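Hello again, I could really use a second opinion on something today. I've been staring at a protein lately and its backbone has me curious. Can you walk me through what the tokens say about the fold? Take your time with it, there's no hurry, and the full record follows here:
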Amino acid sequence: MEKERLYQTIDAAKDALKALRDVVAWVEECTDLTERSRRIDAVAKRFEVAFEYGWKALQAAARWKGEEVYGPRDAIQAAHAHGWLADADQWAGFLEARNSGVHDYFGLGSEEYFAVARDFLPQAEAVISAIKIQTPP
């Protein structure tokens, strides 16, 4: 059951990352500042969802390996320990940005938040691929 849940979570993370990639491209093609601002709002939500699925995939993979992981910080540390992600501090920064966007609307500006979401994409895709590679079929 844990293995099935792991693969379902990985698939959900991949879908969320694809949606984030699509909306990032949608923002990057926009030249109107007002419209760009509206589109960045969509990026913010997609980033939050992708981050949530990303850490839950890390959690599921660590649990499949027999570890207890309770939250995103634990999941980041476990993933780092397993070699699935190289820079735990960078992921802690992604978590901080996500928390700032969800809970503190005075934290990052929209362009800064957009940059974080854009930077998150290749890192998250690499981590999800690393988990897939390291788990038996």
